[in-house]
Amino acid sequence: MRVWLWLLTFLSVALPAMAEPIRLKDLVEFDGVRGNDLVGYGLVVGLNGTGDGLRNAPFTEEIMANLLERLGANVAGESFRPRNVAAVFVTAALPPFARAGGRIDVAVSAIGDATSLQGGTLVMTPLNGADGQIYAVAQGSILAGGISAEGEGARVVQGVPTAGVIPSGARVEREVEFDFAGLTTLRLALKTPDFTTAARIETAVNAELGRGVARMLDAGTVALNVTASGARSPAHMLAALESLPVEPERRARVVVDQRSGTIVMGSDVRISRVAVAQGGLTLRIEENPLVVQPNPFAQGETMVVPRTQASIDQNPGTGLAEVTGGTTLSEVVAGLNALGVAPNDMIDILKAINAAGALHAELVVN
């Protein structure tokens, strides 16, 4: 706990009072410059007996029959039960400005009762966009994300062997139609909407390209006039602005992860005057049943005798501590350290301070 509190104290001292300038490309998304999600339904072959059980996954047999018929093999009415095939979903992201013939990565996930995709090969699978059109075709050997081994009476699994990836496993067949060069107005979408940050972006762009080029529309959008900038094209304009430094405005925020007991607080968090008392009541109940067996060759029954141990420990607490108004992060950490509280108890204290209206920051609990 001491190390954890020391880390918080170090972070509070290391963080500057004002945010450092950040490149514009790291603060905004350029309107129109975005990827598109693709999905397909395919078949993995070559598995070593770890594929789908076709009685439990009839769709695997159906897609395999359709594939064989397209390849010239008539299997209508035939009954086959191979264990080396598995039905999978194939997903990918088509990056912006992807051109026909380019390669993209794909992810493969089993949808039946296959136990592993290790060593499998994805058969040619079309990948469709949201409009139903085919934009890429995937095929290749799968790199599974886990490993499994089993014997007659035991089985061990590490990771997730029913999912994997194929690096550069899909070829782009269709380009997304988008006339980026013909745009006369561009919009910058802030990743974290904030009026102050948007105003600073407007000021920085106008200082770089000329007055009237940028105009803030709202907390999350800044419009750019390509014609007024004098740039040869929207691409040249964005290339000139991507590395433009802008100082973002950060909201005071406290992020709490209850599962791991992690607390992250910004240097601009403030706490009003409040009193904090910390104590606890611990209830322990342990069940240790005792098995009693009769002597050898004696008539009797094996009995289970319950044994329960119960105890209640009431901690006296660490007393009452008072936090004065306008307290900074480092002072809060020092005060909680003086209380000697554990990370989980500190999370409860922060929730209580926020409920009392004394925490002047956004509390995010995961």
Short key terms for the protein model shown above:
38% strand; 366 residues; flat; alpha+beta; 7 helices
Measured by DSSP, the beta-strand proportion falls in: 35-45%
What is the share of helical residues? 10-25%
Rg, nearest Å: 31 Å
Oligomer: single chain
How many domains is the backbone divided into?
3
Overall SS class: alpha+beta
Number of strands: 24
Please give the alpha-carbon distance between the first and last residues.
21 Å
How many DSSP H or I helices?
Answer: 7
Shape: flat
* Integer average pLDDT: 76
Low-confidence region ranges? 1-17
Strand order of the largest sheet: 3-4-5-9-7-6
Report the major sheet: 6 strands, antiparallel, barrel
Question: How does this model look, in words?
Answer:
This protein has three domains: 2-10 and 253-295 and 303-365, no CATH class; 36-149 and 156-172, no CATH class; 179-246. Helix content is 21%, strand content 38%. The protein has helices at residues 2-14, 58-70, 195-209, 226-229, 234-241, 329-339, 343-355, and strands at 22-23, 28-30, 36-45, 85-94, 103-110, 121-128, 134-141, 143-150, 155-172, 185-190, 214-218, 221-225, 245-246, 253-257, 262-265, 270-271, 274-277, 280-287, 290-292, 303-305, 308-315, 320-323, 359-360, 362-365. β8 (143-150) and β9 form a beta hairpin. The longest helix has 15 residues, at 195-209. The protein is flat and about 95 Å long.
Describe the secondary-structure layout.
Layout: H1 2-14, E1 22-23, E2 28-30, E3 36-45, H2 58-70, E4 85-94, E5 103-110, E6 121-128, E7 134-141, E8 143-150, E9 155-172, E10 185-190, H3 195-209, E11 214-218, E12 221-225, H4 226-229, H5 234-241, E13 245-246, E14 253-257, E15 262-265, E16 270-271, E17 274-277, E18 280-287, E19 290-292, E20 303-305, E21 308-315, E22 320-323, H6 329-339, H7 343-355, E23 359-360, E24 362-365
Parallel strand pairs: 14-24
Antiparallel strand pairs: 1-13, 2-10, 3-4, 3-6, 4-5, 5-9, 6-7, 7-9, 8-9, 10-12, 11-12, 14-15, 16-23, 17-22, 18-21, 19-20
